Amino acid sequence: MKTLRKLILLSITTTILSSCVPKTSVQNKAGIDPKSFQKELDGKKTNLYVLTNKNGIEITATNYGGLIVSIETPDKSGKFSDIALGFNKLDDYMTSSPYFGAAIGRYGNRIKAGKFLLDSVEYSLPINNGPNSLHGGLKGFDKVVWDATQIDDQTLELKYSAKDMEEGYPGNLNIKMVYNLNDNNELKITYEATTDKPTVINLTQHSYFNLAGEGSGTILDHIMMINADHITPVDSTLIPTGILMPVAGTPMDFRTPMAIGSRIDSICEQLKFGLGYDHNYVLNQSKPGEMVLAARVVEPTTGRTLEVETDQPGIQFYCGNFLKGDLTGKSGRPYNFRNGFCLETQHFPDSPNQPNFPSTVLRPGETYHHTCIYRFGVE
Ligand code: BGC
Question: 344 an active-site residue?
Fold first, then answer.
């Protein structure tokens, strides 16, 4: 009798105690220790946040760099795996990450020679990629601490105020980015931003996916569809030449689903420059800002699918050509050449220098809007 009473008491105490534990210290499916994401940087606290839906999908993210750390989704037999490349510790992200899971800004992708003219004033940005400026400079939005509010189990709101001339860009920019995991197995990312001076802006999400599970090898067998008749072809430094190139009849064509690896080693100048696919696809939209299915990916062995929808004019398809096995991921396995792919919804690279591309200028009184949906499924 005494033992029974003790047991009941113990179970009540455990329930009360566990309901007091903050959400961020709850054990997550991905097995990531929240403590290894808790730091104080630039006077702000960083933490790990967990989003879950009723189907058991789980996403963890941190307010350092708005990084998506893990994405646990089921395969066709119901077995969950983490399909996002990344690290177990914030320290690893801070020292050596090629933008795994990162929120990118103020300007995603490259700006030629790190220079652009806006209203006749020339701005200079840090050069951090060959002769060009990439992903917002040396300390882009992937390396700053965002202010986080966990709205509920499915929603994380992240805010960041970039200063006038931060990383060379004009205007105090206030950004709100929301990660919402809904019960339709969609991660919906919405961005809003305003400025007090004319500026340029191009935000994106830089998750690397491997639908067979992070650390499980190449992504070359994944079947890719991209809803685009054109790409913006690049020069040898990956800056767009300014023309739109039809994909028809080239290995760049993914309008019909094809294995990523089926034509990746073809003799093709664009594939040579990118070391594979590293290109902006011009999405087929009937009007600017129309929400369209941009890409669909299937991993044949697990049956996992990923659909990407956006209202942006482009999507960067990058297939991990710069991964070389020197980084060890969450499950202790190295990330080798082409072990992950990114589908980054965006405006076209180098738009501030390309008068024929849709404008990326944001002026005071206007609001930048961007929606990106990553939908996780099986077939
Ligand atoms: C770019 C790649 C770059 C990668 C950095 C992608 O968005 O297109 O060229 O190497 O980001 O990890």
Answer: yes
- What's the number of CA atoms in the CB half-sphere (13 Å) around residue 196? 7
Please give the number of the atom of ligand 1 that sits closest to the Cα of 344.
7
101's tokens = 């899971």
Question: pTM above the 0.70 mark?
Answer: yes
User: Which residues make beta-bridge pairs with 122?
Assistant: 117
3-state secondary structure (DSSP) of residue 195: strand
> Which DSSP letter does residue 62 get?
E
Tokens of 157: 């709101």
Report helix, strand or coil for 261. helix
Coil vs helix vs strand at 352: helix
Ligand 1: which of 93, 134, 323, 350 to mutate, judged by most atoms within 8 Å of the beta carbon?
134
Q: Quote the distance between the C-alpha of residue 179 and its chain's center.
A: 11
Q: Quote the CA–CA distance of 231 and 240 in Å, as a whole number.
A: 9
Mutation test of ligand 1: which of 104, 312, 322 has the most ligand atoms closer than 8 Å to its C-beta? 322
230 is catalytic: no
Compute the distance between CA of residue 44 and CA of residue 71 in angstroms, rounded to an integer.
25
Q: In the chain, what are the domain boundaries?
A: 28-200, 218-362
CATH (residue range 218-362): 2.70.98.10
Fold equal for 28-200 and 218-362: yes
| 145 in Cβ contact with 41 (< 8 Å) | yes
Domain 28-200: give its CATH code.
Answer: 2.70.98.10
The per-residue pLDDT string of the chain (379 residues; one tens digit each, 9 = 90 and over) reads 444 455 444 444 444 444 334 444 457 999 999 999 999 999 999 999 999 999 999 999 999 999 999 999 999 999 999 999 999 999 999 998 999 999 999 999 999 999 999 999 999 999 999 999 999 999 999 999 999 999 999 999 999 999 999 999 999 999 999 999 999 999 999 999 999 999 999 999 999 999 999 999 999 999 999 999 999 999 999 999 999 999 999 999 999 999 999 999 999 999 999 999 999 999 999 999 999 999 999 999 999 999 999 999 999 999 999 999 999 999 999 999 999 999 999 999 999 999 999 999 999 999 999 999 999 999 9
